[in-house]
Amino acid sequence: MNKRRAFFTLLLLLGALAQGCATVSIAPTFPGRNPVEGGHLLLVGGGLRPKDLMARFVALADGGSIVVLPLASARAGAAGAEEARLLRKLGAIDVRVLQIEDVRDAHRVHYVEMVRNAGGVWFTGGDQVKIVQKLLDTPLLDAIVEMRERGGVVGGTSAGTACQSEIVITGTDVNEKLIAAGNVATTRGLGLIRGVIMDQHFVRRQRENRLLAVVLEHPEFVGVGVDESTAVWVKPDGTMTVLGASVVVVFDARQAKIVRRGHRLVAKGVETSVLAHGDVIDLDLPEQELEETSLDEPEAIAQTCAPDPDIASSTPPNE
C-alpha cells in the first residue's frame, strides 16, 4: 500500500471510530434486496455541504481517481469545474470531469474505462431526469456499478441523490398540498440503492407530502427524505448512517394498511422516523430501536460548508 492510499485509509478508519451508536432498525427486509458487496454510497440532500461530508467521500475513494458527472446541470461545464476544484482542495489528487451531452456519450469506450477504473464517481445537482435519460441501460452505468462493486464510492448531491433510487420523483406535475394517488410524477431511476425512494432538500422545501404519497402508492419501498447539508452513507452491508447538520426523515409503509378512496390515499400504521447525525438505519432488523448517541452534534455548519456549484439565482423546482 502506497503512502497516499494509506493516508486515505486512515481518514476512513478515524471517521468510522467517530460514529455514534444510535440505531433505528426498520424491517422486514425487502424482497430481492441485494446490497452491493464492497462499495459505498454517500448521498447529500443538496444545499450547502459540510466539508467533512465531502472529505469523507474523498477518503472512501481511497486514493483512486474521482470522476465528476455534471449530467443534471443546466451549466454542466461550470458545475463540473467547481466540483473538481472543491474535491482537489480536500485532498483528491486525480479528478476528472466527464461531459455527457446525450446517451451516445455514455457508450464511449474511453469514458466507460475511465469510470470503471476510478475510485469514486460524483453526481452534481440539477435535474434528476436528465441523469436517468443519459445513463439508463448504457455501458457507462454498468461501469459505475462495477466500480462500486469493486469497493469504490458513488456520491451525489440534490438531483445526484434523487436519481440513485429505482423509482425517482421527477418534480414535475406535483401538487404538494395533496397526498393522493397519481399526484406525483415518477420515472425509472438508476437503481444503485434498492428498496428505497430518495428525496432531497426534504425539510427545507417541505416535501413530506410528495414522498409520503409515492410511498403509499409503492409500499414495498421505504421513503428516505434527506434534508440540505445532510447525507446518508450507505455502507456495503446495506446500513445507512446519517451525517451532517439537519435530519433524514424515513417513511416505512411496508406493514401499513393502505386504502384508496377515489384519488385519496388513506393509511394506518405508517412508521415515521426522524433521524440526525450518527443515527443508523438498518432495513433488515425486525425491531425498531433508537438509542442515545454520544456523537457530538455538528458545529455552526455555515462556516464549514461548500456551496452547491449548480445553485443559480433561480432554482428549478425538480432539483
Low-confidence runs of at least 5 consecutive residues: 1-22, 25-36, 293-303, 311-317
Query: Per the principal axes of the C-alpha atoms, what is the gross shape?
Result: globular
Order of helices and strands: HEEEHEHEHEHHEHEEEHEEEEEEEEE
The helix content, as a percent range, equals 25-40%
- Number of distinct helices: 8
Q: Name the CATH superfamily assignment.
A: Class I glutamine amidotransferase (GATase) domain
The CATH topology comes to Rossmann fold
Q: Do you know the CATH architecture?
A: 3-Layer(aba) Sandwich
CATH class division: Alpha Beta
Strand numbers in spatial order across the main sheet: 1-18-13-12-2-7-6-4-5
Kindly state the number of beta strands: 19
Q: How would you characterize this protein structure?
A:
- Helices cover 25% and strands 24% of the residues.
- With 319 residues, the chain is of the alpha/beta class.
- It has one domain (3-284, 291-306): Class I glutamine amidotransferase (GATase) domain (Rossmann fold).
- Strands 1-18-13-12-2-7-6-4-5 form a nine-stranded mixed β-sheet, sandwiched between helices. The protein has a four-stranded mixed β-sheet with strand order 10-11-14-17.
- It is globular, with a radius of gyration of 19 Å.
